[in-house]
Amino acid sequence: MVKLMVLCGLIDAKVKLVDNGFEGIVVAINPYLKQEEAMLRRLETYLTDTSKVLFRATRNQLYFREFIIVIPETWKALHYYENALDIQLDRAQIIIDHANPAYGDAPYVKQYAECGQPGLYIHLTPSYLLDDDVIHKWGQPQKTLVHEWAHLRWGLFDEYPIDAQDAEFYRYNGVWEPTRCTTEVEGSILNQFTSKQCSFDYFTGKPEGACRFFPRMKSNKAVSSLMFMQYLESIVEFCDDPVLSPQPLRHNYLAPNRQNRLCAYRSAWEVMRKHSDFRKASHPLPEDTDTTPKFRYVQVQPRKRALVLDTSGSMTGSSLSVMMRAASNYILSCIETGSRLGIVQFNTNATILSPLVQINSEADRQTLIKSLPRQADGKTSIGAGLEKGLQLLDSHEDSKAGGTIILITDGKENERPFLADFHHELQAKGVVVHSLAYGQRAEQSIAQLSKDTGGKTFFYSGRKDSTAFIDGLAATVVSEGSIRKPEVALPLLTEAGTVFGGSSLSGEFYVDSSVGRDTSLMVSYSHPVNVSIAGPNDVEIARDTHPEHYQMDEFSGVLKIHLSGLIESGTWVYNISTNEPQSNVLVSVQSKPRDLGSDVVHVTSWLPEETSIIFDPTQKLGVYAEVARGSAPVLGAEVVAIVERPQSVSLQIPLRDNGIGSDVIKNDGVYSAYVMARDMMGDGRYNIKIKATGLQGETKVVVGGSGPWSQALEVTSSGQRSELQTRNLERFQRVTAAGEFRVTGFPETFSEIPDNIAPSRITDLHISLFDPGEGKAVLEWTAVGDDMDRGKASRYTIHLSSKFDQLLASNANESVWTDVDDQLLWNLSNPQPAGQRESMVVSLRQLRDNETIFMGVRATDDSDNSGDLSNVVTVSRALELAVPIEHAPPGHGVPFYLKLLLPPVFMLIIFLCLILVLAWTRRNRKLDCDDDQEAEMAASIFSLDLTTMNYRSEGQYRQRHLEDVETWSRDSLGSSRESLNMPR
């Protein structure tokens, strides 16, 4: 499978909102999918219908105006296909791909960031677009896609139970409620396996484990929320303020779901109104506004790139040599076969050193290397270099517009034309500019240019132990495109070191079974070196015994060992020696997927869009890396961010996928960490490299089950996911560059930085056990750290209140629970290290009958910085037990004969009561009631009456007739297709 890749941080930047209409929404298609014109026509129909539903759901404010469908290069060209621009290829909002093992054909959005932040992409499958039976599983596709767009664009989360700490039911004032939003959604509580009425816990009245809430499919009065059961015919709105909005739209902030937990109990509209979309579209459009979008079809073309190199006077000496070696490495091992590359140098003026050359052989690569610049002098005119780069890209006859420029510079502009003179033209022509700053003096404005054109910025400090130069150049190819091409080699390892005469430098790399085709080991050196490698099954390769594998360019200082075809998976060892006193070396290993179209382990990393930081003691910069095999998440990998810092040694920060701190969702394959204020060491540029390693016996890949991402709710489901199914994954190695960020305003000394960073907010607090008889509850959560998710907090405090609003609104002291026993006090004062599980028993004997208490936990560090209050859990004691239990006074045992007689007498009384009730109900029931309903009414005597416990309106509970349970039987689910108005 070819992995479709979408990097975040640019979702908002590439989709434009113009006069209430979204433009430039890109749809990318896996090139290994069969060409299906019917799929494209169905896609147009669904997206057109989605635009109408979106317009209604956003109260006539927003709709879709333009979609750009990216056709794979492998598909047959049609006359109306335009040539795709690189910027259209790099950032897709919707991808059409094979099914994800964790979801099957379910539409989903991969969300990685906090509430209100955009997701990565919407994932659709061909079956979802072509097979009506598949589509029907999630209801009307237009409403399903609005649900997913809300995840992607506005950072909303699901309002049905999805995570382990969510629950199908919660208790409020002694009554069990189904988790839903809004509480206007009508339905029945039924056994999900038998479609019959549920049983309830003997003591607490809680619906049994197999119980689920099934909504009334026909004539349901509820109109919201689209983030809950979007498939209901009546649902057309997002939920809104729980107090001020009309009753049908009021958000259910008590429901234990991801939206409430991660969005601080705010409704969908309360989150959406803060997004810039709704500030721009402040006034509704007329009801009869034409919301039909336009569809443009563009086809992928071979990539064309211009390498624009700074050869001004500041690059003389070793700087030019280092750049030459990095550029040679890039040409020899990074650029895919079939693409085009040209070379430009700039100083006072600019010169085209090589026209666009299509790379079809090693000879073509050598031709380009020979065109690299040989000397440096003059001033610095970045604008001149960009102008020649544009000319170079425009020279390709088949495609005048678009292309990519890789800009490398080490100094500030001091000669016209300037970068700003071509900023607008680069954007207008759809040219992507990736920039690499060589040293701290490099022009600051190149980062903004890359951001505005959809490119990335990298930084190389010039230090001998840094691999940032080759990492950054490789990332411009590997991270390009929403579609990962199989001919692009994956970086397995990059290392820097120094080898001394009379000794050797050794290292190893691991080739896993998903790669191993056309593997290359590159060594860049300051002085000539000898390199040999050894692999599994006693394979040994040296220059004197296998010269056919070696390529050396002594002028550039690059040696390449190319292992064509397939090599054995396993551990390989390289050995480097030199006859010189010493040589500085950079080692890199790349390998292509073993089988075309197969799943391959890959790592994609990114930083937030805004990377220009004014120092603040509370500063936190998120770093993210996705590890996956194909589209399946890889769990349990060791992922590390290596941060190059000015005036200091590099710092290693582990990235984790544990659902705390910077990591929003556990076990989704996205590993996260914060770079915090005390990690920084001065003003200037910082570079971040990512290393990911698979650990034998610990790292796993998801092969089935239900994943943790934001997935549309299936019609037959109420939300809870099945457990993930995983398989052990072998060892692997991957490296990539996340990018650079810049800091200004750093204090003069490190000691001036106060400890102002609090522990993370706890987001997975839940009650694992509640014994109403003993008045005890077990609270569990994942421990947070001293600074966010690092270290260990100093203490916890438990907050409780009888009113939910008061708990959320209270300050740190008003709701602190102080009436705790010694054991609990000790536990609260001795937190576990971050990432460990906390479990504490709390006594709630003061809880009165029919009373609900709301509880939360807050962590505090040793500098008295307190984190935000956790998600809130509820504890409630029922008014009475489902079946009262008599307890005899001490010393008064029941006589033996009564023990024999009481049970039969008791059963006789129950039987007589049952007969009386049946007779009474039969007399008063309407003539058209069937026998099954009579039996269910009789059964309600022995269980809690679910018709009086399901529904709440304005604080009152009212009875509703049960919907025919056959509506939800497995044999008749298909009959509800007509009620959903599904397209055929």
TrEMBL record:
Residues 304-477 form the VWFA domain. InterPro entries: CLCA_N, CLCR, VWF_A, vWFA_dom_sf. It holds the Pfam family CLCA. The keyword Transmembrane applies. SMART domains: VWA (SM00327). It comes from the Eukaryota. The keyword Membrane applies. Keywords: Membrane, Transmembrane, Transmembrane helix. The chain crosses the membrane at residues 896-920. This is VWFA domain-containing protein. It comes from Pomacea canaliculata (Golden apple snail).
